[in-house]
Design goal:
It contains nine helices and eight strands. The termini are far apart. Helix 2 packs across helix 4. The longest helix has 40 residues.
Length: 311
């Protein structure tokens, strides 16, 4: 009887140990599954729309491959002479897939960076035509993409000019990517006069970049440095946004007319906890929601806004 009790105890103890090992293994598997689930939640799938509204990189490559080319052709600015129709066809496909059917050549007219902040020039046209039966059909060729409107009469012209020289000539800027907003494709462009005088803010910048590339390459070559890839300027931008309630804005003619503070009290410069660099972002006003929306839109434009804070 004692021997039987001992065997039962051993059997029970073994069963307990076996059950414990099984439970431990199941617990480890469950923990691994939970870790796997957590890792799945940290995937980048939710952020795959980064840059999807910019025709460059993998976005451009996907659509250009459908027309027998690749995104690499955009790295050579001579594509405007050799592959304009191909790029235009790819841009049209990309536009239609994103619900766009309008395009414009987008530029910054003279004084847009100083006197008239934020103002841009553009003429929007549908990417369509009507056939002989009066039915609409898509129509967007290379000639439509690389050149735009030729009316410069609305911009500073430096004096009276003959009619045939009064034009303003828009040409695509191949150093800036084509982008999409809403139902419209924006083609970054340069705007010059009949004799090549800059009528915009972009042309002087492009010419300055070209001069820096040319003479900087010469200098670096004399120093024994390899510059086969050319010289390219890069800048780091920090965008500061001043959010003013709409009702307060309408009471400030200086903000409405000049875009800046001309009248009013000086801004506080103390240690107020609600108004310093590291103060928490308030959800009591639409300010945070506004910044979130700006971040989302910039993300789709390939602009990596990663930081939010008070100034």
């Amino acid at each position: 009887e004692d021997e039987q009790k001992r065997k039962n105890m051993l059997t029970s103890a073994g069963a307990v140990r076996m059950w414990a090992r099984k439970s431990l293994a199941q617990g480890m598997m469950s923990s691994a599954a939970r870790m796997g689930a957590a890792r799945g939640m940290a995937s980048m799938e939710a952020y795959e729309d980064f840059g999807k509204h910019v025709f460059s990189g993998s976005v451009a490559d996907e659509y250009l491959k459908k027309h027998g080319a690749s995104g690499d052709i955009l790295n050579d600015p001579t594509w405007t002479q050799t592959h304009a129709d191909t790029v235009a066809a790819a841009v049209l496909d990309w536009a239609v897939d994103n619900g766009a059917n309008v395009f414009c050549h987008w530029f910054q007219p003279m004084a847009a960076s100083g006197v008239r902040h934020g103002q841009t020039g553009q003429v929007q046209n549908m990417m369509m035509k009507f056939n002989s039966k009066g039915e609409p059909e898509f129509d967007f060729k290379g000639k439509d993409l690389i050149k735009g409107e030729t009316d410069g009469s609305s911009y500073p012209n430096g004096g009276l000019r003959a009619t045939h020289t009064a034009g303003g000539y828009l040409a695509i800027d191949t150093s800036s990517p084509i982008f999409l907003r809403g139902d419209t494709i924006f083609v970054p462009s340069a705007f010059v006069s009949y004799y090549g005088a800059a009528l915009d803010e972009k042309t002087p910048l492009l010419r300055a970049n070209a001069a820096l590339d040319k003479h900087g390459t010469r200098l670096l070559k004399q120093l024994g440095l390899d510059t086969n890839g050319g010289l390219r300027a890069n800048i780091g931008l920090e965008q500061e946004i001043f959010l003013v309630p709409r009702d307060a804005y309408y009471k400030r003619p200086d903000l409405q007319l000049t875009g800046r503070t001309v009248i009013g009290r000086d801004a506080p410069r103390g240690q107020e906890m609600c108004d310093h660099y590291m103060a928490p972002l308030s959800s009591a006003t639409p300010a945070l929601a506004c910044m979130q929306e700006i971040q989302d839109e910039c993300w789709k434009m390939g602009i990596p806004l990663k930081t939010r804070h008070r100034e």
